[in-house]
Design a protein that fits this description.
alpha/beta; FAD/NAD(P)-binding domain; 2 domains; six-stranded mixed beta sheet; 13 helices; about 25% strand; globular; binds flavin-adenine dinucleotide
């Protein structure tokens, strides 16, 4: 384990490179501090556009720029790749790990912005059959599954098989992510792919949006929810409300209605867009401070986003339970900036800020190209105007000019034209993660330990020597054939 070394300058450690972590770090650009961002991915992720990666509109690079590149110009910030496995509030250290290699990083101030993950409400086995939408891996796996389902259907239909289950897509969860996903699959089937297949008619695809709640988009209120439902149905999406998912397997999904009816729907492709669970790091923070966790694992924080008894520790974004704040990007961004400002004020000897106050800039969700819903203060907008606002907001918050430019280009290709630039999917995207999860220690089983090759060194060296000899002999043979003019001569 790396040794803990205390530095002279005030050390800020930021856990997470998502919205809270990145914006908090950037807000410390001019501060007299050193910032260490520790994150388990090397990219910042713009989660609101993941559904576009999954449906072939955007590339993963456009929504996930390298954190290192984003922070390259910020001299006081460095990036440390690793999964945080421990936070010791008394010794003020954070322990992170990559493939068995552990690092301990000391801090004077800590911003915890580790976000949340998908929640299957205790049915984690559903994850294998109904991937969520929280990471690039999720989006690429879903892309593979969605486009793969059309390929399998074409193959089956060519042989004369019934392919209805292959052309049935179920999206679980009628929040913004579920609505956007269902709308995009409908556009994909009814518009983008309609000329690409011969044996199947993609216009006959079934898209089901299933939710246990009684309405679509509950946070947007009853009026916008009802309008969105009508819009989705016009697009060909079957909206099934009051339908609770009780089972998921590789062949389909089972739902139970309020009246006790149970229905099984045969569907190859299922997408889970229901429910989130705060990062498990809240558990260790709760154990050390006594701060309670809510049902989604979010931790109760002080009004200034600090932990009880530890004013140097801020928790922001999806991990916090404060004033019923929603799990949205702006809560994380504003929380990260607030924490950064408080750290600077303390160093300057200034009095504390007012308690954290979330400024709600509004909510947006797209339904299809040129159609969205927007709730901004008391204003409720639908249709093209809402979509234009969606476009401007997403362009503003996408990180980096390069990404904004290429995203705009891809949107023009998909929304004005009918193309999708990112339809490539590989077998590894679909099955790689399932294979990894079946290894006892995950990726650790595939690499050498931190102290070398752990006994494999000799066999690896022997393999390298054998391969080298083979390649050298091959090269000599090539030279001989060229120099002797034997190429193209009959072999006797
Ligand atoms: C599909 C989808 C669509 C969404 N759409 C919208 C939308 O339209 N509008 C909106 O406002 N919000 C939307 N949200 C919600 C929004 O993305 C989140 O509220 C926001 O990302 C929360 O920011 P955060 O900083 O708390 O966490 P995140 O942005 O999730 O960042 C968490 C970071 O912590 C890292 N991390 C996690 N655990 C560890 C660990 N143990 N060690 C090290 N690093 C760790 C992660 O790798 C990541 O870098 C959407 C979310 C999803 C999933």
């Amino acid at each position: 384990m790396a040794e803990v070394r205390r530095e002279q300058r005030h050390q800020v450690v930021v856990i997470g490179s998502g919205f809270g972590g990145l914006f908090g770090t950037k807000a410390l650009k001019r501060a007299d501090v050193d910032v260490t961002v520790i994150a388990r991915t090397s990219h910042h992720l713009f989660q609101p556009l993941l559904y576009q990666v999954a449906t072939g509109i955007l590339s993963e690079g456009e929504v996930a720029p390298s954190t290192r590149e984003v922070l390259a110009g910020q001299k006081n910030a460095r990036v440390l790749f690793g999964e945080v496995i421990g936070i010791d509030l008394d010794s003020r250290t954070v322990t992170s790990q990559v493939l068995g290699r552990q690092t301990v990083t000391p801090y004077d101030s800590l911003i915890v912005a580790a976000g949340s993950s998908q929640s299957y409400f205790g049915n984690d086995r559903f994850a294998e059959f109904a991937p969520g939408m929280k990471s690039i891996d999720d989006a690429l796996e879903l892309r593979g599954r969605i486009f793969g389902a059309f390929e399998l259907a074409e193959l089956g239909a060519t042989r004369g098989d019934n392919v209805d289950h292959l052309l049935t897509f179920v999206v679980v969860g009628a929040g913004p992510t579920g609505v956007e996903m269902a709308g995009q699959i409908a556009e994909l089937a009814h518009r983008t792919l309609k000329r690409d297949f011969r044996a199947i008619n993609t216009k006959h695809v079934r898209i089901l949006l299933v939710d246990a709640a009684g309405q679509v988009l509950p946070p947007f209120g009853a009026t916008l929810g009802a309008k969105t439902k009508v819009d989705l149905e016009r697009l060909g999406v079957e909206v099934m409300l009051g339908a609770m998912v009780t089972d998921v397997d590789e062949r389909g999904i089972e739902v139970a209605y309020k009246d006790g009816r149970v229905e099984r729907i045969a569907a190859l492709t299922k997408i889970w867009a229901a429910g989130v669970q705060a990062s498990p790091l809240t558990k260790t923070l709760s154990e050390q401070t006594g701060a309670p966790l809510d049902r989604a694992g979010r931790i109760a924080v002080n009004p200034d986003l600090t932990l009880p008894g530890y004013p140097e520790v801020f928790v922001v974004g999806d991990m916090i339970d404060l004033d019923h704040l929603p799990g949205v990007a702006q809560v994380a961004i504003q929380g990260g900036k607030y924490a950064a400002k408080e750290i600077q004020r303390r160093l300057a000897g200034k009095p504390p800020q007012q308690p954290f106050h979330y400024f709600d800039k509004g909510s947006l969700a797209t339904i299809s190209r040129f159609r969205a819903v927007a709730l901004i203060g008391k204003l409720r907008l639908t249709g093209f105007i809402a979509w234009l606002i969606w476009l401007v907001v997403h362009l503003t918050y996408l990180t980096g000019f390069k990404n904004r430019f290429t995203a705009l280009l891809h949107w023009a290709i998909s929304f004005i034209g009918r193309g999708r630039s990112e339809r490539a999917a590989t077998e590894q995207q679909i099955f790689g993660r399932t294979a990894l999860s079946r290894l006892e220690h995950g990726t650790m089983d595939l690499v050498s330990g931190p102290n070398g090759h752990d006994g494999f060194a000799e066999s690896i060296d022997a393999m390298v020597a054998e391969r080298r000899a083979e390649l050298e002999a091959q090269a000599l043979d090539e030279i001989r054939l060229t120099d002797s003019g034997e190429r193209g001569q009959p072999v006797r």
